[in-house]
Amino acid sequence: MFNPKNLLKALPAFLLLSVCAASAGAQTAKKPEDNRFTKVVLAQGVEEPMQFQIMKDGRVIYAERKGKIKVYNPATNKITVIAEFAVSTKYVSKKGEISEGEDGMQGIILDPDYDTNHWIYVYYAPAGDVAKNTLERYTWLGKEILRDTKKTVLDVPTQREECCHVGGGMLFDKDKNLYLSTGDNTFSRASDGFTPLDERPGMSPEDSQKSSGNTNDLRGKILRIHPEANGPYTVPAGNLFAPGTPKTKPEIYTMGNRNPWRLTIDSKTGWLYWGEVGPDGSKDDFEKRGPQSYDEFNQAKKPGNYGWPYFVGDNKAYRKYDFGTKQSGELFNAEHPENHSPNSSGLTELPPATPAFIWYAKGVSTQFPLMETGGNSAVGGPIFRKADFKNAKRPFPDYYEGKWLITDWVRGWVNVVEIGDNGEYKSMERFLPELRLRGPIDMKFGPEGDLYVLEYGNGYFKNNPEAELIRIEYNGGNRKPQVQATASKTAGALPLTVALSSAGTKDFDDDDVLTYEWKVTKGGKPFKTFKTQNPSVTLTAPGVYKATLTVTDLKGSNNSKSLTVKAGNEPPVVAVTVTKGNSSFFFPNKTIAYKVNVSDKEDGSLANKRIAASQVSVSANYLSEGYNMTAIAQKQQGVDATARYAAGIALIAKSDCRACHSVKDKVLGPSFIEVAKKYKNDQSAVATLSKKIKNGGSGTWGHAEMPAHPALTNNELGSIVRYILSTATPQKTQKSMPVTGIYTTTIPKGENDNGSYIFRASYTDKGTASAAALTTENLLVLRGSLLTPSQANGSKEMAYNRDSTIVVVKTAGAYLKFNKVDLTDIKNIELKLLPRGRATDPPGTVEIRSGAADGKLVGSFTGSYVGLNTLQIPVTGAEGKEDLYIVFTGNPARLNGVKFNNE
């Protein structure tokens, strides 16, 4: 009898060593540096893109949900429409209510033999009175799809009374079998975030047992068929149910799926992988209903039942639930699931449930912490096998061999999953941590080894401006230099001398020798060329100049960066100063005197009255988020109230909020304006809405379930809510303040009192006959007087906890340093202590010094601070702004705040 083990014994020793070495090499391959990957934007303005395929010549064909099939051609960088289908995207309830749904054009794929037969398959919901999704085949010769070649391959009967879950992923295996994923076609938002099992008469659209749990229905499945040239298809051997089995569909490969999509097959093992979108619940209720929602990433080594609607995640069981009586029954049994629904036409006894490969909820996952928190929508992605990319230009490195790259439509990350030889989960890591995708809806490798991603954008059922097609290229060889180009001045009067700098330019390949070339042009015509790193150029004629730095490495790879210099007009100089009071901190309900100074070489100044005070814009805004958020405020233009809500706007922009909400329009959830109007006169609105966002839930605005956001801090939640509430009242442009005046730093109602006051002054000059006007803006930031350890600008011999909220003195001579602190009017500095030590410990000493750790002593304390919560140290003799050092020369201390008091 043949024994495969004997084959290894018969192999020559050198060949056996080669086999072992190759295996070991794949396991020990070094992780590539992130800078070896480059994101390239191929196409923008794609409209609700769904699924795509990359052709051998680099063209990308993709489907848009509203019915168009388009092709992106990299040779021309243009997109063309090759077909437009009339699709159904609406649902009409029994009450006659019309709503937008997920149906439409869901997917396209080319036949494995496309080069010879030119077949293309489309899966969509055709417009009309017949509720179905259909798989059709057409001939496509490279221009428009030939509609008269239509051949219907498969129809999937559906219901169009309620949304959702279409599936629509398609994939061919090496035997040319076509896999098609279908959703459970079930409205789930009337199920309180749990499983939809409504068996009441007329409620079948809300019962997933009719589809996913039904062995005699094509919905909620992954189907496997073999399309035939002269007929629709045959069923390959080895599916879940053998042909002829009563009450079953032989096309079923997997069942118990909710919304499976973006299928991939490991070309080495033949195992099938996909993403599975879960329900919406944010909390467990095991006594009445069952587990909270989990999204899944699944693996099928063979046909199987993946549990929905009776189980979720790693076979967490739901309870039988009567939607009429609200009574709960027993937990379903994963080993012996049964379907007794009157809406099912299939078998009662179902195959055992297969647990998910990876599962994650709205909150933090202890098993898979890299999945993050908040709304989720598992998409899936490709498994990399280098053997699939022979002669490719840019295949990913061996480090990714056999690993699965997955993504999430809401969260936008890409994670890399390592899978063991037996198919077991081993580990997970982030791919390119700085990369954040916007609604990734399909992801796969192209023929040259690049990773392509189709981004749907943020928000359902609309043309998102951020939707695009990108690819991520790997550079395994010589990398281009990273170029930085700066100028000492970017505008000025004539003659204008500008020092150009290449500081910060670097090359990641250490052996390279770089050469530098600066080309200065005016109106596209050459002006000056320099072959040095940091030249100086003098501009004697007015106009706009462009300075381009090109850096070339030893191997000839180059990269460039440009900057613009405007000659002929000196920018204004604007300053905001405090003339009476403290220039570092504000104190609630206290007054300060301020003054704005403006001077302009051509226009004059405020002082000589050639610049009128009315031409200077001055404003003050309170930013409740604190001093660390001023960088956001600086980016906001103008003097309106937008700056006040900058942090909330920024938090919403990087969260999952935009997937379900917009400012004006209802999406899945209410518009921000609707929410603001509802809570306009509610004094507890900030607390109420913050809790809702943090914990998730449904019911206030209908069945839509809002996911929990447990990772958001109370401060962040407050920022989001205050911005949302502000949308009810149109923001008016703030009237400019006087250029010199007295201002009372009051705290707006409902805001915390340790934010920042931002005084902003700007002036636009008159320009010159040969140069355009220029604007200069300057800020004065007064922060709250309570500083946290994380806000220190330096330290010595201090140990921080993980989030830098607490700092511990390690040895005598340790200190915290705060840069440029104004001690004007400061009476004492109060240390917020966390009690430590023993009553028998000797006294300690704390010194306040300015300028250096051994600089001028402006305050000190000697004594025992064992058991104290606060320690106030009087301050005397301080002058102007100096670096401030809090030096500990005695016993250890532990503190979590430093407060500057003016009384």
TrEMBL record:
Name the InterPro entries for this protein. 6-blade_b-propeller_TolB-like, CBM6, Cyt_c-like_dom, Cyt_c-like_dom_sf, Cyt_c_ID, Galactose-bd-like_sf, Glc/Sorbosone_DH, Ig-like_fold
Q: Which residues form the signal peptide?
A: 1-24
* Ranges for domain Cytochrome c: 643-728
PTM section of the record: Binds 1 heme c group covalently per subunit.
Q: Which domain of life is it from?
A: Bacteria
Q: Where is this region: Disordered?
A: 190-217
Ranges for domain PKD come to 481-565
List residues binding heme c: C657, H661, M706
The parts of the chain that form a coiled coil are none
| Name of the featured protein | Carbohydrate-binding protein
